[in-house]
């Protein structure tokens, strides 16, 4: 399986007020790459990261739980 079709690609952000974390889920390839780099540089804010792979080992979706929300410019550059 390759990346999701363009019609199926999405990025969602949900804030959990009880746990005080942001849940970010994305199937957009550009957002996957940028979030992976962001968490490498800012590992202290990462609670949990779950990548989802295709049969070739390519990351096709990513779910993150972050203590701090990345700037919107991360997604729009």
SSE inventory with pairings:
Blueprint (H helix, E strand, L loop, with lengths): L10 E6 L4 E6 L2 H13 L4 E8 L5 E8 L6 H4 L1
Antiparallel strand pairs: 1-2, 2-4, 3-4
Briefly note the structural class of the backbone.
Answer: alpha+beta
**Main sheet: which strands, in order across?**
1-2-4-3
Number of E-type strands? 4
* Poorly predicted residue ranges: none
- The proportion of residues in beta strands is 35-45%
Distance between the termini: 27 Å
Mean pLDDT metric: 91
Q: Could you describe the largest sheet, including whether it forms a barrel?
A: 4 strands, antiparallel
* Shape assignment: globular
Give me the strand/helix succession.
EEHEEH
Question: What's the domain count?
Answer: 1
Query: Percent range for helical residues?
Result: 10-25%
Gyration radius, rounded: 12 Å
* Total number of helices: 2
What does the model show?
- There is one protein chain.
- This protein has 77 residues and is an alpha+beta fold.
- It has one domain.
- The chain is 22% helix and 36% strand.
- A 4-stranded antiparallel β-sheet has the order 1-2-4-3, with helices on one face.
- The radius of gyration is 12 Å and the shape is globular.
- The chain starts with 10 loop residues before the first strand and ends with a helix.
- The mean pLDDT is 91.
């Amino acid at each position: 399986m390759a990346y999701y079709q363009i019609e199926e690609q999405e990025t969602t952000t949900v804030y959990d007020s009880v746990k005080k974390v942001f849940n970010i889920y994305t199937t957009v390839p550009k957002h996957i790459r940028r979030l992976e780099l962001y968490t490498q540089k800012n590992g202290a804010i990462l609670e949990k990261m779950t990548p989802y792979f295709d049969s070739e080992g390519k990351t096709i979706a990513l779910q993150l739980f972050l203590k701090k929300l990345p700037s919107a410019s991360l997604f729009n550059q």
